[in-house]
Amino acid sequence: MSSENLKLIAEMRSDDPTVVARAAAKRVRATSLLGSHGRLMMIAADHPARGALGAGADATAMGNRADLLDRLCLALSRPGVNGVLGTPDILEDLLLIGALDGKVVLGSMNRGGLAGAVFEIDDRFTAYDAQSIARAGFDGGKMLARIDMTDPATVATLESCARAVSGLAQRRLVAMVEPFISYRKDGRIRNELTPEAMIRAICVASGLGNTSAFTWLKVPIVDDMEHVMSSSALPALILGGDVSTDPESAYKSWSQALSLPTVKGLAIGRSLLYPPNGDVAAAVDTVVGLL
DSSP class of residue 275? Predict the structure, then answer.
């Protein structure tokens, strides 16, 4: 993705903004949520809209759009990768360069809880809504549901998530909920990654909305995953988190989680887009091999 290609995207957007809607209308949609391997293998790229640009030791890695698009296009081109998760700006860039054909596409919905902000737990829906996801012809929406028992703003976030789950289900679209029990430490929101906390978060998330028929979960690796994942019958994806300094250990934990009955695939972002050795294709191919 050269600067010239980035210039071309900007010119397409400035010359005729309706080109985005036309590209969405022409996009070849996926015929199934699951790929030929029987799983959903998603590349996650919704971090920048929350101001979370870091990957590994590089605090602004995801702030270079040309580089990010280059890495995304490479990851999406690898065999076995059948989905992508992003905010409107990123998904529309990918639409304009034809990278979303045949892929499962989830739009990220609540990005208002900016990383490090005093209002971070008040995670307002500032990106996609159910109507715009349906209009774009995408397959569903993803939302983060962080639960801080000491912050009154949590209830507004949960209520918004519940409305989003209901709105997506009404349109027969996937509602991907990523739940955490959270707390504030040294001025920043932290997630409690214990089995007990994840079980509680999953149980709350599973009950959001007026139906769970179209709800999926997106959960991290924690201890005792068999016990954790037995807390709900909803299908789930395992998320990758930040770039690991020990990729082999991460691969092993993802592989073990994939053997659990409700785990239907992976949603990995920075770990694959910014691997320690810089080889995106090799990292993606290794993880696809786990499926």
Answer: -
Residues in Cβ contact with 248 at an 8 Å cutoff, skipping those fewer than 6 apart: none
Domain ranges (residues) in the chain? 3-290
Q: Pick out the chain residues at pLDDT < 70.
A: 1-3
Sorted by sequence, the CB contacts under 8 Å of residue 137 that are 6+ apart come out as 24, 25, 27, 29
105: amino acid identity, one letter: V
Q: Which residues contact 273 (CB under 8 A, 6 or more apart)?
A: 43, 45, 55, 62, 68, 71, 72, 75, 280
Q: Alpha-carbon distance 182 to 197, whole Å?
A: 9
CATH class of 3-290: alpha beta
| Predicted pLDDT of residue 172 | 98
> Tell me, what amino acid is at 269?
G
Report strand pairing: 174-185 vs 188-191.
antiparallel
pTM for the full model?
0.95
* Cβ count near 127 (within 10 Å): 24
| Crossing angle for the helix pair 88-96 and 3-15, to the nearest 10 degrees | 100
If residue 146 lies in a helix (H) or strand (E), which one and from where to where?
strand 140-147
